[in-house]
Fold each of these.
Amino acid sequence: MSKKNVYTFGGGKAEGNTSMKALLGGKGANLAEMNQIGVPVPAGFTVTTEMCIAYGKEGKEKTFTSIKKEVETGIKHIEKIMNKKFNDPADPLLVSVRSGAAVSMPGMMDTVLNLGLNDQTVQGLAQKSGNERFAWDSYRRFIQMFGDVVMGIEAEGKEDIDPFEAAIQAAKDTKGVMQDTELDADDLKTLVKTYKKIVRDHTGRDFPTDPWEQLWDAIAAVFGSWDNERAHRYRELNNIPHDIGTAVNVQAMVYGNMGENSATGVAFTRDAATGENLFNGEYLINAQGEDVVAGVRTPQQITLEGSRRWVQLNNISEQERKAKYPSLEEMMPAAYKELRQIEEKLEKHYADMQDLEFTIQDGRLWLLQTRTGKRTGVAMLRIAMDMLSEGIIDEKTTLLRVEPNKLDELLHPVFDPEALAKATVLAKGLPASPGAASGKIVFFADEAEEWSARGEAVILVRIETSPEDVSGMNAARGILTARGGMTSHAAVVARGMGKCCISGAGTIKIDYKKRTMSMEGASFKEGDWISLNGNTGEVIEGKVATREPEMSGDFGKLMKLCDKYTRMYVRTNADTPEDSKRAREFGARGIGLCRTEHMFFEGDRIKAVREMILADDEAGRRKALKKLLPMQREDFEGLYRAMDGLPVTIRLLDPPLHEFVPHEEKNQQEMAKEMGISLSEVKQKVESLSEFNPMLGHRGCRLGNTYPEITEMQTRAIIEAALNVQAEGVDAQPEIMVPLIGKKEELVLQEKIIRETAAKVFEERKTSIPFLVGTMIEIPRAALTADEIAEVAEFFSFGTNDLTQMTFGYSRDDAGSFLGIYKDLGILENDPFQVLDQVGVGQLVEMGTRKGRSKNPKLKVGICGEHGGEPSSVKFCHQVGMDYVSCSPFRVPIARLAAAQAALEK
Ligand code: ADP
Ligand code: MG
Ligand code: MG
């Protein structure tokens, strides 16, 4: 037997079902399923996605030959159920031809309705229905849609309007009416003539009159549209494979344009924006297909409740509402009642919120589509939790249904959607850190601090940012950079702060001197208002109203549920008590990474740091470090208090010293004055610290091993702080982490200094506290020799930022120039600094964990790179058996959910 390429449905039976989405497309599979469960759906058939692939590979002729019989049988099937004949001049069967891939895909061919009409069949349709206007309305719609999507007739230029639209507008103008429904049969007959002329003028051929020719042309157009540029681009953007194809659905028409007792509409079983369990939707009387969405007329609300809410928003009186915008519930109570029953049935059956399309023909209800409804993050959470408590889904399904990344939307302030709809977008960059921010443009970090101290809301606009800018970034409402990727300094720091950030908005030109930022067609100066949409990467003109996100009790309930199923726990990367507290509220169970260097930039500290760097000998360094000690100690005390009862991993100094000295002459001069030395001496020192490749240079434990006094000071601060807060009754759990180990010996030396210093402090204080000594695994050699290193280390924390950098040999700060191109070329699937490269870098992580545990079964293993907050990477960490992941405070809930999902997906 030859392969089956066409699947029929109708009359309560179907050859397909919802599990066959890959073969029948989402639309086709669900049309079949609805038939199976007794929902009224017009009969039809689906040509498989495989035939679309064949069409692309083997061409039209061969493909059509192989499906010709089946399509003809399919039409017979519809004829039998509808008791009408295709191409019958007395009582014609008309069909719609609808595309439908496995994943919803705008950009594909649009639907053609009323196919099968010509000058003869339109007469039959008019006679049989006793409604001449309806017949000609259907005919003009058919020519327009077919002309549009099959024959490719479109507006000439971007500013012109579609010729068919122009023609119907002219007809309405001539008659002096506003609505399509006000055109009568004669007007429509004239319009059909005009439409046919448009077709002839644009294509040089007559509109095809043979229904079979129309049908095959339409099928070809659907298959052909799979390869059009729009569809291609959409798939690229959304990571949809190019080889899955689309199905074609051919389905008997039902008519919502048959008069005042007919209608068409779309509905949602729950509110897609808020998640409220409220059936809602819009409809139009005497209309067809997409009139509702296309905004041909103002659509009306389906439910009375929805209608009342709608008039309130639009400032319309109840009287006017009843007269002009009555609900379907009021207008067609019987059909409405049935729609409610079906809506409930479908939601229960699919156990998820559904998005429905329906048509009422002369009082009789038909369903034309059901699919899982798209929703906001807020709605996603609420619907999942509601459905759990309603008993529609179980705990496991609830957890798996919530998308970790979408939780992000719930944690940051949001723009008011109405204000956003009216906004002007100036430029687009990367949505580096989500959220919504409005403020005045400021170009310099110190000024951002000054302005914000005066109470101004500012957006820090930079070509790129550096560690010197951190406090300015902290003071700003949002950060915009013209350069840099998703893991640029600005992006990483902003995410850590939970601050809205757009990075790499390349069309923006920044002139620091003139203090202006410009893009095509517009220029802005310091002090002008702009807004950033960190969820989309859109830079918006002026001030857009925001509102606090609604953090309902559902959020807490979901997090509790995560804890019930997860194996791994989540820590946070935090350097301040405020961040630690916030992270703890989000459920962080400790600090996985405290970067001590961030603390060195604050206030007067940088002076002491610079003094240490400039010192010529150990004695000089020790003198400067002594000044830093009390400040560091105080920092750590704050962290321990915030994390009372939870572990706090503190990393010893990591960056090259060069990052702490000023590079601009103005600042160098200041420094010279402060230190009482000459500018040239400062310059010389700065010069001597500069390295060709600082990321591979004098940093990490190489600093601690060449200047042991730094490790000594930091250890002392860590231990003394712990003892101080212990005396207050705080349960401090320090974990000292040595960065950038490549050889076991490096750790051995550092550990010795740490343990000796701690012992000294214990001796001085006549008391002690338990602490751990461990290391980052971030150099490939460390992962390869993890078994040796684990003989010394009590814990491992995978620093996957550096590990990725060194495994790929991509400089994190320079990769922006080619990563995008590499993705386009298909060399890289993702930015490896965002999504852990499981195949390559992942091997090192897996091996490091396994080897480490082989020597030290008690070894605690975690991750503290950016990947610790990225869902697919978190799942990988679960699989290799890590104890915890650590991420920035605002990613903690996301990581918790991803960790729980990982435990369930196994
Ligand atoms: P899309 O994928 O863009 O939603 P559809 O194929 O669902 O396109 O169709 C567009 C519109 O036409 C929808 O409103 C749908 O309900 C309507 N429609 C499609 N087929 C028929 C039909 N056989 N009878 C009546 N309306 C139809
Ligand atoms: Mg459409
Ligand atoms: Mg649809």
Amino acid sequence: MLKPENEDGAASLVDPQFRHDVLTGLALRPRAIPARWFYDRRGSELFEAITDLPEYYPTRTEIGILDACCADLAARVPAGAAVVEFGSGSSAKTPRLLDCVKPAAYVPIDISGDFLRESAGALAQAHPGIDVVPLEGDFTRPLALPPAIGAMPKLGFFPGSTIGNMLAAGAVDLLRSMRASLGEGALLLIGIDRIKGEDVLVPAYDDAAGVTAAFNLNLLHRINRELAGTIPVDDFRHRAIWNDSRARIEMHLEAMRDTAFTVDGRAFTIPAGETIHTENSHKYGPRDARLLLRGGGWTPLAEWTDPADRFALILAEAQPERFAP
Ligand code: TRP
């Protein structure tokens, strides 16, 4: 099926997985659509803008920790290591880590080949001494690393508290996949956001300028654009809710009045006050984070936080597994 998709009127195929996830998710109770569909071009731009918001503390806090812990971290990473980043790399964090650790190679892994090659090219230019080897693939499953880094010590890098966007079971599975990909003896540097007061958490996901609201609502625009939807986007509002028992911020799109619409010809109704659940951001206390890592096969070795203890960078090692005390 062909549909016009972008501004220049180019037609493109409907992504059957997107269609399936939206139609299934709107029929679920509670309604829920997987967060991966946020990130079309507009969504990715809005997310970049979120990381600059005054209320969104995680990005700048993690960068501050990375700068402050550099000497300590560099002393714990063997010389001639390969840094393997799960995700394409952020313009602010990756160069800092590379400058700090001075690895022999850098392997960014991402499912989107175009974005991957773009950012890898820029990094290679800025770090002529580092062999940059992008790897296109799904890092939620064990992957074969490039033979060129086979003999090097490995340091996995997974910043941004992205692990917090998974449910506990999925987070453990992902940590186990990373362990399988990197191998026993590897190190992992992971960013994990801390539990803190709602006065700080809720504004980080519901900012005064409305950028996070626009990011969440963009999903509805994308459905209308790519799946021939008739969703009245103005009838929905962004909600960020702290779920204390599950220690997570939940993102929802709430219908402000009874709504009826179609997506790809299928009819849906959402009564006023009901929501579509679009994302979770789990937060971890210090012991919670270490337990999560151990559950995923990683032994915490060191951790660094900011002075307000808002965010943690944890270094862990894939030690041989022990099943007895
Ligand atoms: N990993 C980020 C986080 O949980 C992702 C994120 C930030 C996000 N703001 C968002 C996801 C708003 C959805 C909506 O902090």
